[in-house]
Amino acid sequence: MQLQTPDGTRLHVEELGAGAPLLMLSGGPGCVNYLRPVAELFPGHHCLLPDPRGVGQSGGKAQDIAGEIDDLEAIRQQLGLERWAVLGHSWGADLGLIYALERPERVARLVCFAGTGIQNDRDWKAAYEAGKHLEADFEVEYSPEVHASLLGAYRRYIKQPDLLVRLARLSVPVTFLHMQNDIRPNWFVRQLAELLPRGEYVELPGAAHNAWLTHAPELGVVLNRLLGEG
Questions:
Q1: What percent of the chain stands above pLDDT 90?
Q2: Would the N or C end of the chain have less CB density within 10 A of its end CB?
């Protein structure tokens, strides 16, 4: 379906299933929403998969984090939803955490699936780069302009002096679901799980970053347990 933001930009949102609403945010940043195979693990949910502004079938141009949050709110409002659960993968997990922080009253619960946490750590980056060749190939359409704009905005956002204090007060239940064989180090999401008052850390054995490619049944079991059956 196509929805329109207050400034007239059309956003493409794929819908799957029926039941409790679940917003699904893909990574990148700036990738088309590639989470349909994960959404298919949720037959009891109404899964909503938006393409970010300027990407795929969505109109508009690259913007910042505040603009992304506004677009998510425009989608929620046009669908007439008071609240929804949120599942974000990779950078989408980090965007989901920011969304929960900025609009906690709109997020019933959040699952940060294979995210990186709120950080720009050189040791983390070095570990990621050293293991990058081990990651299975996963090609997805993306916009370099949107990627650069959102990544820069994210790095500015995480430098806010009160960010950790705000996270320590976040009332939304948040699960950090890490893949055991993800080349992305887990220490930042484990720290966040300890910091957040309703945070938890869960690990999926044997799985890598794009777990649905190799561990779809196991991923479906754990995600349905975390999010309920709709």
A1: 85
A2: N
